[in-house]
Amino acid sequence: MKIKIEEAAPCNSKVIASMVKRLLDEIIQRTGVKSFDFNVNDAEPKAKELIDKSIYHIFLARDTELETKNETEHETEVGLITLCESYSLYANGSYGLIQEFYVSPDYRSRGIGRMLLEKAKTFGASSGWKRMEVTTPPLPEFKRSLNFYQKYGFSRQGGYKLKVLLGL
After folding, report:
1. pTM (two decimals)
2. Is residue 165 part of a domain?
3. Cis ω on the peptide bond leading into residue 137 (within 30° of 0)?
4. Residue 134 lies in a domain
5. Measured distance CA(13)–CA(7) in Å, rounded
6. DSSP secondary structure string, 69-114?
7. What is the pLDDT of residues 27-57, one digit of tens each?
8. Whole-angstrom Cα distance, residue 59 to residue 57?
9. Domain annotation covers residue 143
10. What is d(CA 15, CA 62) in angstroms, rounded to the nearest whole number?
């Protein structure tokens, strides 16, 4: 296994949508709650649009050994982290948000998540962000995710992630 982390291009939108679907399906399966109304066919052009506008930054983990084997049946992308910029007074201006973070199950516990997170932190620092925030999937089902983030410097801030649909 040889992993390379690269910023995604619009041409990667299909694999991005596919990985985000796998992430959301895993959350739904483990929690038993259909928290997301996600359509992979709608997500692909949306990912392309957001990347084109440079308002959504995605880093892909690619297994380059799969590329060299010319395996056409398997995607070479094995993980991703997506970021966007937000603003607040409490953060003294701009800061980064991790929106989606996924590593394929067969590649977990091999340092790929750490590599993606380091790339995200480097990108955030170069973008002038003083902080980065993330919301974990529901606990206790995703306690391992919380432990991962804490291991790499994130601290709990309390609260819950809430949503309201605006019907737009």
Report:
1. 0.91
2. no
3. no
4. yes
5. 12
6. TT-SSS-SEEEEEEEEEEEETTTTEEEEEEEEEEE-GGGTTSSHHH
7. 999 999 998 989 999 999 999 999 999 999 9
8. 7
9. yes
10. 11
